[in-house]
Amino acid sequence: MSVIVDRETRLCTSGITGREGTFHSLNNRAYGTAVVSGVTPGKGGQDVEGIPVFDTFREAVAQSDANTAMIFVPPPFAADSILEAADAGITTIIAITEGIPAHDELRVYTQLKRTPAVRLIGPNCPGVLSPGKANVGIIPAAFFREGNVGVVSRSGTLTYQVGNELAQRGFGNSSIVGIGGDPVPGSSFVDIIALFEADPETELIVMSGEIGGSGEEEAAEYIDQHVSKPVIAYIAGFTAPPGKTMGHAGAIVSGTHGTAAAKAAALEAHGVRVGRTPTEVADIAAEILAG
Amino acid sequence: MDLLEYQGKQLLARHGIPVPKGRVAANSEAAVAAANEIGYPCAIKAQVQIGGRGKLGGIKIAANEAQAREQASAILGMDIRGLTVHELWIEGASSIASEYYASIVLDRAAKAPLVLLSTRGGMDIEQVAEETPEAIASLHVDPLLGFQAFHGRRLAYEAGVDGDVVRAVGAFLGALYATFVKEEAMLVEVNPLVITPEREVVALDAKVTLDDNALYRHPDNAELRDLSAEDPQERMAKERHLTFVKLDGDIGILGNGAGLVMSTLDVVAQHGGAPANFLDAGGGAKAEAITAAVEVILSNPKVKAVLFNIFGGITRCDEVARGLIEAFDQIKPQVPFVVRLDGTNGVEGRALLEEAKLPNVHAAATMDEAAAAVVELAK
């Protein structure tokens, strides 16, 4: 098993005719993901290396039976594209696009909350990889193999770093989920940790957080009350000065809120072990899995 | 992007919110002319993006021209918590019957706008929240429904505002919400919101943070960015499309991906080092971007050593190596570099660096090893 993407995934890429959209759709297909269609308004009827392109999501779903969307269109069009995919009946939407205005994200989040069957991952995320099954997004699959560690992270490269250190110690992953670095993510740590808790293949959960917001603190309480599997956390940004956006739109310490120290303290207070470096996280994971 | 007080007020005024009449001035002559036009008494206010400037001497009331001149020259050029005052805002002194507080913030936990109203204005709202939480009325707004008139009345009654201004305060909050949504703000805060003896509702201060990701839809607002207040190194990085934040230390840092760079700063600090900057070369960085990044990092004379920490996903380590070789060719750095290349095309990247035999460049296999090495070299 795995979460969010697997062999049942039938992917439709919004923005498939763009440079990045084409590159990563083909990459995902090469990995074995069923990339069944793409959407680019005005380019319906064309194809990208055999993947049919449609003008609308409604048509793409009707013609290709897509159940998962990957959003690659530029920020001004991304919120619209997410809502279009949901409206067409797509239930898993993975938004890679970085730079979507926060108020757009607020409206999308509020609308999707009213259609609980739809799950949005991202925006501003690397996607979801279930090793050996499917890869949707930009995660370099070569570093990961099948296994029983579930990883959920706000950052792409940091996930690769942690995943690679686990792989070097001989451990693989059930799924790797990037929830993204924006202020209004479609799915939270709690949402994904709940999926890993229910996933029989996942035996250990690694969460990688960073400064800004309160998603890590909420996860700490949730883990304490609802999660039986061991969880190891990493938090980035102990040295980040307040009021500065550290690369990700959501990575900002506002006054005294959202500091790495507060997040690590909240997690530890709820019994979650926090590694001080990515290496230490992998060491703790190895120790738990070996024991 | 944080706006200066007067920029925030001009934004509020565009949405029908009453603000005191005022003028901006960049030298004391202009300040005196503005004060004479507005009339006395008037307030002379330092324009810096920092709270509590009144207590630090950044706001004065002038009763006449002589005072206006004296105070304007005293405040201009003043250092307020590390920020130099380049501009003044001169406005008519308001008569005050009551001071309230109003704000709207994008509440990340609730994923909705949060409206706050309190009759304890003029104080730090976090202090009010701690001491008398019952004095703050709050409400989350459904972004698809928007702010309704009853929301305004409810907040006004719950906060306990004077009965005769309930509707006016409610309308004020409605206009504040319109500003928040139409200008795509992350925060609009009015503290104090003043009730005058004539029972008018006026925004006496304004703190506005706009969403950087939405500025492309607001070209007028994008132009408000205060370039003179920006650090020259941060400006240089922005011109080269690099994500950069200046820090206090002496170890230059480059990495790819915001999370990995934050993590690199932390690991360097754990080894006893002090990072000079945050620099994310981004996903898929090409050789030119790396050369530009080295230029930006070394433009800080405090930098004694540089750490490259790359875990290639989309980014290819051989591109990074080529960029570094190019940078050494062009810039001829005088400080030691520690380079850790791992991930996509790591073998090729490391081979390129080894062949190039760059002076004073040290390879490291892991992030921890790299951090330890760079801290040692910076000593």
Topology:
The complex is a heterodimer of chains A (291) and B (379).
Chain A: E1 10-14, H1 19-31, E2 34-39, E3 47-48, E4 51-54, H2 57-64, E5 68-71, H3 75-87, E6 92-95, H4 102-113, E7 119-121, E8 127-130, E9 134-137, E10 146-153, H5 156-168, E11 173-178, H6 189-198, E12 204-210, H7 215-226, E13 231-236, H8 260-269, E14 273-275, H9 278-290
Parallel strand pairs in A: 1-2, 1-5, 2-4, 5-6, 6-7, 10-11, 10-12, 12-13, 13-14
Antiparallel strand pairs in A: 3-4, 8-9, 8-11
Helix pairs in contact in A: 3-4, 5-9, 6-7, 7-8
Chain B: H1 5-14, E1 22-25, H2 28-38, E2 42-46, E3 59-62, H3 65-75, E4 79-80, E5 83-84, E6 88-92, E7 98-107, E8 112-118, H4 125-131, E9 136-140, H5 149-159, H6 166-182, E10 185-195, E11 201-203, E12 207-210, H7 219-222, H8 232-239, E13 243-246, E14 251-255, H9 258-270, E15 277-280, H10 287-298, E16 305-312, H11 317-331, E17 337-343, H12 346-356, E18 361-363, H13 367-378
Parallel strand pairs in B: 14-16, 16-17, 17-18
Antiparallel strand pairs in B: 1-6, 2-3, 2-6, 4-5, 7-8, 7-10, 8-9, 10-11, 10-12, 13-15
Helix pairs in contact in B: 2-3, 5-6, 8-10, 10-11, 11-12
Q: What can you tell me about this protein's structure?
A:
The complex is a heterodimer of chains A (291) and B (379). By secondary structure, chain A is of the alpha/beta class. Chain A has helices at residues 19-31, 57-64, 75-87, 102-113, 156-168, 189-198, 215-226, 260-269, 278-290, and strands at residues 10-14, 34-39, 47-48, 51-54, 68-71, 92-95, 119-121, 127-130, 134-137, 146-153, 173-178, 204-210, 231-236, 273-275. In chain A, strand 6 (92-95), helix 4 (102-113) and strand 7 form a beta-alpha-beta unit. In chain A, helix 3 packs parallel to helix 4 (102-113) and helix 7 runs parallel beside helix 8 (260-269). The longest helix of chain A has 13 residues, at 19-31. The two termini of chain A are 23 Å apart. By secondary structure, chain B is α+β, with helices and mostly antiparallel strands. Chain B has 3 domains: 21-92, Dna Ligase, domain 1; 98-222, D-amino Acid Aminotransferase, Chain A, domain 1 (2-Layer Sandwich); 231-378, 3-Layer(aba) Sandwich (Rossmann fold), CATH 3.40.50.261. Chain B has helices spanning 5-14, 28-38, 65-75, 125-131, 149-159, 166-182, 219-222, 232-239, 258-270, 287-298, 317-331, 346-356, 367-378; strands at residues 22-25, 42-46, 59-62, 79-80, 83-84, 88-92, 98-107, 112-118, 136-140, 185-195, 201-203, 207-210, 243-246, 251-255, 277-280, 305-312, 337-343, 361-363. The chains are: A alpha/beta (291), B alpha+beta (379). Chains A and B meet through helix 4 and helix 5 of A and helix 9 of B.
